Amino acid sequence: MIIDRGSYQMGYGAPGAEDCDYTASYECHMPPIPSGPDATHPTRILGAGWDAGCAAPPELWGTGRPWFIVNLTGSSNVVVACLEITDHSSCIEDHLFPTGGSPLTCERDTPPYGDWAATGLYAADSTNVHLEDLNIHGLANAGVIAGRLRDWTVDNVRLVGNGSAGWNGDLVGDGTNSDNHGTLLFRHWIVEWNGCGETYPGGEHTGCWGQEAGGYGDGVGTGLTGGHWIIEDSAFLHNTSDGLDLLYARMPDAKIEIRRTIAAGNDGNQIKTSGEVSIENSIIISNCGFFHDMLYWNNDDDCRAGGDAIAFALNPGGHASLVNSTITGEGGCLVIAGCAVNQTCNGGEQVLLRNDLFQGQKVFLSPGDDTCFAWYDDESNPPMPANPFVVDHSLINGARFGNVTPCPGGNNLCDIALGLLNSTLDDFDPHLQTGSPAVNAGTTDGAPTDDFTGRPRDAQPDIGAYER
Question: H/E/C letters for each residue in 334-346?
């Protein structure tokens, strides 16, 4: 089915919705998209221009507070492409609940509810789905709620300005019965300003709120899940809790690969992972005090979970790596590691930091202190029994050293100017200047063949995300 260019009302009052109940218009939504017979013969729902760059996608906008706009419940072998999915309201569902309402709170009790929808796309028990060229923004609750998925591909999908979360992978709200499996491939995935509303028609971000105020705010979060997560050429920016939270990727088949990705300005951890993890050619900027003193913001949410830039939760004997990346931040630490929940580490765990640049800053919540370089949880019950960090061919500046001391050894250099274009937090620019000690200082062992921009690295790679 090809949807012509234009704007289409979805919900109570829309053509074809005459049988909907006025008082229960939240139930007035499309039925599940019918499955294709197999992966090579998918059902395709396409916006006009899908085959020519998708320059002006048709708009599907929700009204009457439907639970969702696009329905993939039980839908498999489906392609959805070239659509704008939104509503025509500035409201945020349950804004500042339970501490009290705000002018931005959506009407949920008495119809007419208004021109808002809770969620852009809902999916459950769904296999072999391809989402491409979707702009899902300004919904009152979440851009996407999706769980129990297998073998999904998400390409060039934008989740922006949704009032609770960008991608919420917890279907039932308790972290269970939402597990995913197979290959979950995300490319050119832009997830930003979730936990904030979006004004209509102006498109300005407003009402940003975190968990202390009753909100949520993850850019991406899941329940307990497995699956091989591959994330490439993506961005997680200015979400009101964690940017990318895959801490619950704890099932035996869970594996995470992140390449050429930036995470910055999120209120909590920029990237949070569990299990077997590989991160390369990425830029992580933990300016976790970004939302401080904004209208509606509760400053108790500043630098949630310590605001550490990257968090690794390890299974017994598990390995993670961070290679050719550039990290800075004003949270407690730039990198932390600990045992995954309900796991007892055995001392064989390893976090490899290789060819990385680390620039410390002053801690937002304690401005007299420098952020720490790396820390492992040796005080929990049970504790991590040994230092898991292996630091090799890395440069560290402006950070204090706690229970991980990378210098001397490992071809590392500490307390040395990194030669970045700009090292300050607000204007951080990790491009390398002429004469930077990072130039030609990396090892080829395990180094990616390209850099953050996809440019080839030479025979003697530079340290950090950019090859000069």
Answer: EEEEEECCCCCCC
Distance, first Cα to last Cα, the chain: 47
pLDDT per residue as tens digits for the range 123-168: 999 999 999 999 999 999 999 999 999 999 999 999 999 999 999 9
Cβ–Cβ under 8 Å, residues 163 and 93? yes
Quick check: is 160 in a domain? yes
Backbone angles phi, psi at 299, to 5 degrees: -65, -10
Give yes or no: residues 15 and 137 share one domain.
yes
**Is there a domain that residue 253 lies in?**
no
Q: What's the total number of domains in the chain? A: 2
Q: What's the pLDDT tens digit per position in 241-261?
A: 999 999 999 999 999 999 999
The residue segments making up the domain with residue 347 are 260-468
Q: What is the mean pLDDT of residues 174-190?
A: 97
- What pTM does this model have? 0.98
Task: Please state, in angstroms and rounded to a whole number, the distance separating the CA atoms of residues 301 and 268.
Answer: 8
Q: State which H helix or E strand residue 313 sits in.
A: strand 310-314
Q: Please report whether residue 12 resides in a domain.
A: yes
Question: In whole angstroms, what separates CA 357 from the centre of its chain?
Answer: 22
123's tokens: 């999916």
Phi, psi of 78 (to 5 degrees): -135, 145
